[in-house]
Amino acid sequence: MAPQLKYVQIAEQLKRRIENGDYNFCAMPGVPKLAAEIGVSYLTARQAVQKLIADGVLRRADNSRLEICNRPGSRRNSFKVAFIHPLDVIPNSVWRNSICKTAGEFECSFREIVYCHNDDPLLYDGLDGGFDLIFLRFDGADPLFLEKLKKQSDRLVTLFHDLTRYGIRCLDGLNPAAIDDLIRYLYERGHRRIDCLNTQPASSTVDARIAQWRASLKKYGCTGRLHNDPVAPFVWSMPHAYNVLNGVIARGELDADALFCLATPIARAALRCFHEHAIRVPEDISVVSWGETEEARMAIPSLTTVDTPDPAPLVRQIFEHDLGIRPQPGRLLYRTAASNVILAGESVQERNLTNHPSK
Fold first, then answer.
1. pTM for the whole structure
2. In this structure, are 154 and 201 located in the same domain?
């Protein structure tokens, strides 16, 4: 079999980029730029572009610039979806995977845009790009950025950040009120001193979870200390959680019989820290967390956590609305409903109140 001609290989590469939505938020480069970027001659790059024009993938606009053609009968190029998120979103995130999979099911192009700081030009380029539907994850918004988001409200869906009061749709996980089920779960098993550990960046989501932890302690007559030392945005919170808990133990400030961690990576850091201090989980202290159920199952011992329902049905409803399949005019909040909230792991053990009257 004869080797594929170089210009054909380049044409296929450009075609894959187009199908991946790589040129949805920036102009299609001209032949000179493509030649320099790919590392081929101008003639070879021009042959590749001419092939894509002949195949109906590209066309020349009136100003001679290259434009992407929409394929008849397919939404893949006509309806463009983006997921814009900070660097800390893990590749196997159930939320990311649901958006990507649903885009594929509806034959929409999908582009993931990762930004590294709140002023990253990629974030702004993505919002200004030619996308029909944008899923955006971010932690905070200054007034200028908020004004920009409000102008994009017809095609924007925020994740875990409720801006519905501004007419912006929100895709959210479980209500923080589900933390009450977790505290009750510990209370029913004899726990009375339940500390809280957080090192995630400060945000309204973190504040809401801490507030619910405090409210639930009061509701069940429990006590507990808050160990809250958030990292800066875009800094990994897991190693810092390990260091913070090391300090808490060294200062003798840990007298709880359970530890509630605001995220599963923080709980995993706590497990390692307790192991190094010969504090047994769950014999000496129970550990519980919020979300990331697959990661919680992989811990040793497996972590008891708040189970997050599959977001795919809600993601599908958003797509169906925007594609005009099943419109839901006026709906702004898409939130997963609780079913069996607690995913029991091996990290919780009942406390004997008779033998531990102080607890």
1. 0.78
2. no
* CATH number reported for the structural domain that contains residue 51 in this entry: 1.10.10.10
The secondary structure of 25-53 as a DSSP string is SSPPP-HHHHHHHHT--HHHHHHHHHHHH
Phi, psi (deg, nearest 5) at residue 182: -70, -45
pLDDT tens, N- to C-terminus, the chain (359 residues): 556 788 899 999 998 888 777 787 777 889 999 999 889 999 999 999 999 999 988 888 888 888 888 654 444 457 899 999 988 766 558 899 999 999 999 989 889 999 988 889 989 989 998 899 999 998 777 888 999 999 999 999 999 888 999 999 999 988 899 999 999 999 999 999 999 999 998 888 899 999 999 999 999 999 999 999 999 888 889 999 999 999 999 999 999 999 999 999 999 999 999 999 999 999 999 999 998 888 899 999 999 999 888 899 999 999 999 999 999 999 999 987 766 689 999 999 998 765 443 33
Residues 224 and 304 in one domain: yes
Residue 143 lies in a domain: yes
Pairwise CA distance, residues 138 & 158, whole Å: 8
Q: What range does the domain containing 53 cover?
A: 6-68
